[in-house]
Amino acid sequence: MKLAINLCLFLFVLVISGDKSFSLTDYQIKRFCKNEKRHLTCIKNLRKKRFDLNNGKLIEVPVIPFKR
Fold first, then answer.
1. Quick check: helix, strand or coil at residue 61?
2. Is 50 in contact with 58 (CB distance < 8 Å)?
3. Would the pTM count as exceeding 0.85?
């Protein structure tokens, strides 16, 4: 019984939050790209990726390793 309740709750959470995607705002894009060497190209690329993400297309997200 407990397994069935947990399974139903898990599926309910997946259905509610499964189709939402969070993309960067214009301010966040400008703040992220201001330290880049070619900031206009960076802004253009991130806006294109945001547009593709909002339209449901897959995008590649680079992973930058953390250095101490």
1. coil
2. no
3. no
Say how far apart CA 63 and CA 56 lie, in whole Å.
Answer: 21
Instruction: Kindly indicate the confidence band of residue 56, based on its pLDDT and cuts at 50, 70 and 90.
Output: confident
Question: Using CA atoms, how far apart are residues 49 and 41, in angstroms rounded to an integer?
Answer: 12
Nearest to 61 by CA among 43, 37, 45, 41: 45
Q: Residues near 49 by Cβ (< 8 Å), separated by ≥ 6? A: 59
d(CA 24, CA 48): 11
CA–CA gap between residue 53 and residue 3 (Å, rounded): 35
How many whole angstroms separate alpha carbon 64 and alpha carbon 4? 40
